[in-house]
Amino acid sequence: MEYLIIIISAIFVSNIVLAQYLGICPFLGVSGKVSTSVGMSGAVLFVMTIATIVTWLVYQYVLLPFGITFLQTISFILIIASLVQMVEIILKKVSPPLYQALGIYLPLITTNCAIMGVALLTVAKPDFDLLKGVVFAVASALGFGLAMLLFAGIREHLDLMDVPKGMRGVPIALVTAGILALAFMGFTGLV
Amino acid sequence: MNQWKNFSKGFIKDNPVFVLLLGLCPTLAVTSSAINGLGMGLATMFVLVCSNMVISLIKNLIPDKVRIPSFIVIIASFVTIVELIMEGFAPALFEALGIFIPLIVVNCIVLGRAEGFASKQSFISSLIDGLGMGLGFAFALTLLGAVREALGNGSIFGYKFIEGDAILVFILSPGAFIVLGYLIALLNRFKKTI
Fold it and tell me: Which of A19, A35, B26, B131 has its CA 20 to 30 A from that of B39?
């Protein structure tokens, strides 16, 4: 039950993109087509899960015991950056088809604040153990994927619409995202 | 390069938020009031100026292959400094900005200027570029925060000019997207006429 609450709240109630404003850059940047947004969401799911596990372990077993939690920003970003590189190299070797699907999105992920944000949120919650952290990370990534997919679907249709000149491109995309966020606010109070 | 042009490009022509669309996460997240927007803008500006200066000074010492990781470490050090200073001297602001202070590290505008400008230009140019871009970012965040606070709370910088309730949704997450969308649309319109 506890896990179910974590999952539902991470996907719907406090959706990482639409309610917590994390990962806006890829949300606006690569959401032009449904196919690219699926690739990006897959890459995020993959990296977010691994990054949360590693950063949680480092925080609990290195930073906390030695009393050096002020180094968490530096250590987390280094972990995430090297992890992304490592995942890229391993994927290239072990699973070329998966690498082909996710490869071009991986370098972008280092500066995706959703990854770092979820890692920071996970260690900031005192009642989270490793399993809860992983469930939270996976659910957050799924929430990211859901928002991405919905948004990409809307944008594909939006391309065919007659949008006023000044609103074309980014402004209408932002207003659309705002309306999507408004729809997601309907989930408030679910958990 | 003309230094005044270098300084002023960050405000309108190459504004990080309205034109380059970099660093949107903190832009949307912390601008529920003008003062939060200003605080975040100034914190980012500090990091931007310092990292630009340091990177332009040591750009010849960094091997090309490990340039991005080195930039990230330099930026992360300054972010940690900002974090500690803010926690010590402005705890209320630190609470309000939450995880978006450490997330300055992954703010694309800082790394973007480091990679795109400071790693190629002289110390003075980089310093001025950091100042201009940082002020442009702070200006955009303050403007967005002021509009959202005015519509959502009926106040600006905490000074209340409408009694009673206002349109609360502008302080919540949908309002952030919608206000930024319309501000960019307005700016596009305005830019065509000048």
Answer: A19
| Pair A141, A41: CB distance under 8 Å | yes
| Chain B environment of A147 (Cβ under 8 Å) | none
Q: Give the global pTM.
A: 0.87
The 3-class secondary structure across A49-68, one letter per residue, is HHHHHHHHHHHHHHHCCCCC
Integer Cα distance of B173 and B150 in angstroms: 15
Nearest to A81 among B69, B77, B169 (CB): B69
Q: What is the ipTM of this complex?
A: 0.84
B-chain residues near A175 (CB < 8 A): 177-178, 181-182
**Cβ–Cβ of B103/A110 closer than 8 Å?**
no
Listed by start position, the domains of chain A span 18-185
For A31-52, write each residue's pLDDT tens digit: 778 888 888 888 889 889 999 9
